[in-house]
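Hey,
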Amino acid sequence: MTEKKSAIRDIVIVGAGAAGLSAALTLARARRTVTVIDAGQPRNAPADGVHGLLAHEGISPTELLARGRDEVLSYGGEIVDDQVTKVSGEVDRFTLTVGSGDEIVGRRLLMATGLVDELPEIPGVREQWGHGVIHCPYCHGWEVRDSRIGILATSPMAVHKAFLFKQWSPHVMLFSGDQQLTEEDQIRLQALDVPVIDGGIDSLEITDDKLTGVRLDDGQVVAVDAAVVATPMVARTELFAGIGLEPTAHPAGAFIETEAFGQTAVDGVWVAGNATDIGAQVSGAAAAGALAAQHINTNLTFTDLDHAVAELETKQAEKAN
C-alpha cells in the first residue's frame, strides 16, 4: 500500500463481495491496475451457505470470498481492508479517503457496496437471521422444503413471499401481525390453502439455538420450522452523495439506477451488484460485476486511444509547420 499511495489506478472498486471481486478479477486479467477497498461487512455473512451458484453450491460465504480475494491477488490486483469515508473528484481522478487517512486515486470508479437488510425489531429475528429466519426462496427454499414455514407480515411484501414459498412447502402460514390484508390477497391465500394467523407477533421461540415457533401477543405459540421476513433492502449509498448520485426509492427498499452495463449518470462511475439490483443473488451479482468490468475496460481503452490519436495529430501538425 505504501508504495502505491501516489499511483493513479485505472480502477478503484469499493466493496469486495461477489460483484466487486468478480469485476476486479476481470480487470486484473485485462492487465488493469485495480484496487479494491473493503470494510469487511458482507451481507450474506450470517448465511450457512451460498446457493444457486453453479459449481459452488453450498459453499460458505466466507470461503467463497476468500477464494475470490486470492484469485484477484494472483493476477496483480490490490485489496485494501479499510472503510471508505469519503469519495470525491470526477472522471480520470476520483479520490477515495479511507479510515487510515490514506487517499486512493482512480481514473474510473466501481461501487459494489451492496445493501443492508433492515430487520424487523422482533426478538429472535436478528439472532436467527440467515438460519431459522430467511427471506429468499431461491436462496433458502430447498433447505426448508416441506417444513412448517411461517411468513411474518412485517411489510406489504409478506403476502408475495407466501405465494412464492408455497412452491417449496405445503405447510406455509401467514402471521398477519399489524398488516391489513386486501380482499384480493385473502382470496389468493385461501385459494392456495395458506392459513392466516391473526394477532400481533411478540417474539420467536428458540430452543437450543433452533427456531421452534412464533409467539403471539396473547401468549399462544405456533410451531414453525422456519420464519420468513420481507426485509426492506436498502443499498449502501451514503458514499454516493459525494459524487452526485442519489438513491431511487423502491417498494422493497432503495437502489442506484444504472444503464445496462452498470454505468451511472455520473461520468466514469459504475455500480454493480445489490447496490443497483437489490434482488440479485450471488450469481447475478458476480455476473454483473464481470459485465461492468468489461465495459469499464472498453471505456478506458477507447479513451486512451482517443488521447493517442490526438497526440499523434498534434505531432504531425507540429512537424508540418
